[in-house]
Amino acid sequence: MIFISGLFKKTAHLITLLICLFAGLTAAAVDSVTPPAESLLQLTDAAEAALQRQAIHAPASWISSWLADAPTLSTALLQSQTAGGSDEIELALTLPLKSPARAQLDDELLNNEQGLRASLLSYRRWFASGMIRDHVWAITLEQTRQQVLAEQLALYQRFLAKLQTINSGSELNVYHQYLYQQGLTELQLEVIHSEKQLLKAQQQLQQLTGQQTIPTQVREVEFTQSALSQHPRLRLLILQEQQLQLQRRANTAANAAWQITTRVKQVSTAGVDDKQIGVQLDVPLSFGQQISQLDHSNYQLNYQQWLDNYSDAQRDITQQQQTTRVELQALKAQLILLSSNDTLRQQAKANLLLLLEYQEISPDIAQQRLQQLLQAELQLALLEVQVQQAISMLNQAAGVML
Questions:
Q1: What is the dihedral of CA 325, 329, 335, 337, to 10 degrees?
Q2: Please, what is the average pLDDT of the chain?
Q3: Domain 2-56+66-397, what fold?
Q4: DSSP letter, residue 77
Q5: N or C end of the chain: smaller count of CB under 10 Å?
Q6: What one-character DSSP code corresponds to residue 67?
Q7: Burial, 157: exposed, middle or buried (Cβ in 10 Å; 0-12, 13-18, 19+)?
Q8: DSSP class per residue in 310-377
């Protein structure tokens, strides 16, 4: 029995050493980062900037306000094969000009492009907000768990030390020591697992923002449900659909370029040179929204793909909102039930600790009761965090940005 007790002590020392190692790694990592952010807004700014750096930037393009396409320079040399015939040299410059309708359409395209850029920035901000929420609440949950576990560890260590001071080598006393040592070991294993999860979340946050620490205030207000079409993901898709419609209009004959051609011509006949200068204007005639079969087929294919993307996004957002709302309601109901017994639980815990202190209760029975009370205590503390986390996730599903 003495050997078993000594083995438990060595195991406890080993686990304590592992806990210190995890804590040391976490502390060393925290010391090497930039000063902590004061708000979720600052963390989201850093995440958004990181996403911006990862984006692929297209080179700037030059767009003419009056040319629909590149100018064309053409030359022609005609030599007569008949005696006394005329030889001709011609130089022509063709400018494809934007029609008034095309110029107006380009203005609409430009406005829609600016809207797309703004919508893309909003979508990126919303996406960054979701990543920050995930990491922040993962850290908050583990920090809360560790805080409660630290208090519970102190209790077990206190009563284990008390049992070890009893000068009794009876098998019953050794068994009681085993029970408390086993309970202490289980708590220490929980701490090790929590430290691993915390370190993982902190490293992910650092990769995204350059920081491992989170602000002291991370709670959010539950926002009222906004129009589904205003969700950043759907708003971006709506503007993409408008872009498809504008591109289709740009391919119609009504918006084809007007061709203006300047010609310089020299006609040589029997030693006499005749020089000519002229201008030619070609205006396409269109009938309604006339479009080529190829452009029409491409539009139909792209529009069907857009419809599928929009339907999928709308369904995903609706399901996510419903799921997070149901989860929030369930967590609130659990919290109300556990909170209603909290006062009684605290009294029971205080009384049990007094009975243990004065050895007026069997240690094995007390250990079982204490374990139940401590589990309820940890569950309540985590539920309070999970309710706030669910509110944050509901805001994310509703399209609310940090």
A1: -170
A2: 78
A3: Outer membrane efflux proteins (OEP) (1.20.1600)
A4: E
A5: N
A6: B
A7: middle
A8: HHHHHHHHHHHHHHHHHHHHHHHHHHHHHHHTHHHHHHHHHHHHHHHHTT-S-HHHHHHHHHHHHHHH
